[in-house]
Design a protein that fits this description.
binds flavin mononucleotide, globular, four-stranded antiparallel beta sheet
């Protein structure tokens, strides 16, 4: 896959919505997998597709810890409370949101901008606005200050209302990372493989096993593999959409 997608040299493809529907509708949370490994080429492609998820300011605040080594997988499965999905999957992926990589990734956006000329507005965004926006300062003191200023300025005009704290930075990073997780699950399905997202785990132990840095937040552990015949536990159902969709 190319590192960049230039809209001039990549015209929009024709897409069969029924193929998309097949991917979405056949994805299920799978609780038992066969022993068949997921080929590295498939895993690589799925992870690349995961990283094409939309993400805040293209700051890509995610990390993926791919665990294939049986002994580490076993430890991780135990930390995932011994869930069958974790115990049977040939690969487990720790999906981690990062709150402290925004600064280095701002710089990477400046360094790796794909066009020859960096637009001034982009330069300004990553060098001036992003630091203002995402830096919460020591003990979150800048965040408190920004919140106060925002409350005053916001009386007269719309202003950004955060992230104003380390806690809000966690939500900020989790949003983008969860979207990448969904891309990953759909990509696995499109390749004929399956997954189970898990938040049922011992966070302390999972962090230790994976070696997650201090600013990392384990959003979920994803079990991935080929679904076993008894891998689906129940029929898929959702509540009435009228209860959830609000059209204004
Ligand atoms: C954030 C998140 C955490 C989840 N944690 C677990 C888990 O720990 N164990 C599990 O078996 N399923 C877990 N699931 C799967 C849900 O139970 C499942 O998505 C839901 O029941 C709907 O079923 P479906 O995915 O087959 O449509 C999780 C799903 C999400 C999105």
């Amino acid at each position: 896959m190319p590192k960049t997608t230039d809209p001039k040299s990549h015209p929009l493809p024709t897409i069969d919505v029924e193929e998309f529907r097949k991917v979405v509708r056949s994805r299920r949370s799978i609780r038992r997998f066969t022993d068949e490994p997921v080929p590295d080429s498939v895993l690589d492609d799925c992870l690349e597709l995961a990283m094409l998820a939309p993400n805040s300011s293209n700051l890509q605040p995610w990390s993926f810890y791919v665990v294939k080594t049986p002994a580490i997988r076993q430890q991780l499965a135990t930390a995932c409370l011994g869930q069958n999905a974790a115990k049977t999957a040939p690969v487990l992926i720790g999906i981690v949101a990062r709150t402290a990589t925004w600064r280095q990734n701002s710089q990477r956006n400046l360094d790796e901008w794909p066009d020859e000329k960096l637009p001034p507005i982009v330069e300004k965004y990553y060098s001036k606005i992003a630091p203002l926006h995402y830096n919460q300062g020591p003990l979150g003191v800048f965040g408190v200050l920004k919140k106060g200023l925002g409350l005053i300025a916001g009386i007269k005009k719309p202003v950004p209302r955060g992230p104003y704290s380390v806690c809000e930075m966690k939500v900020w990073a989790a949003k983008s990372t969860a979207l990448a997780a969904q891309n990953l699950m759909l990509a696995l399905r499109a390749h004929g493989y399956d997954s189970c997202p898990m938040e049922g785990f011992d966070d302390h132990r999972v962090r230790k096993i994976l070696g997650v840095p201090g600013d990392g937040q384990v959003i979920m552990v994803l079990a991935a593999g080929r679904r076993a015949d008894n891998g689906v536990y129940n029929q898929q159902y959702r509540f009435d959409k009228e209860d959830f969709i609000h059209t204004l």
